[in-house]
Design goal:
With 101 residues, this protein is mostly helical. It is built from six helices and no strands.
Length: 101
C-alpha cells in the first residue's frame, strides 16, 4: 500500500488525501518520522482535515515531540468541533488528557 501511494506522489498527484493515506501507511509501518512529514503536508493542504491532525499528533507523540503533538491535537480538536466530527473530537480529547497526565 505504502509503495503504491509513494508512486502516486512521485507521479505528481500530491493532495491532502494522498498525503493522509501515505502518513497513515507510514504510521502502520512504524515509520513515525515519514508519517509526520506527510501528515504535516496534509494539514497544510487541507487545514480542515481533522483526521489528519489526529494522526499527525500520534506520529509526533511516537517521535517524543510531545509539545508538537499537543498542538496538533488542539488544532485538530478545534477543527473537529467546528465540523461536527464527533468521533475525532472524542479521540483527540482522550489523547490530550492522557498526554497532560
Amino acid at each position: 500500500m505504502r509503495e503504491q501511494l509513494e508512486k502516486l506522489l512521485a507521479a505528481g498527484r500530491d493532495n491532502a488525501l494522498l498525503r493522509f493515506g501515505l502518513g497513515n501507511a507510514c504510521l502502520k509501518d512504524g515509520d513515525a518520522a515519514a508519517a509526520a512529514l506527510h501528515l504535516q503536508q496534509a494539514t497544510q493542504q487541507n487545514p480542515a482535515h481533522s483526521a489528519a491532525w489526529k494522526l499527525l499528533g500520534k506520529a509526533l507523540q511516537a517521535l517524543d515531540r510531545l509539545q508538537e503533538a499537543e498542538a496538533a491535537w488542539n488544532k485538530g480538536l478545534e477543527v473537529a468541533v467546528k465540523q461536527g466530527d464527533i468521533q475525532s473530537s472524542r479521540e483527540m480529547t482522550v489523547f490530550l488528557k492522557r498526554l497532560r497526565r
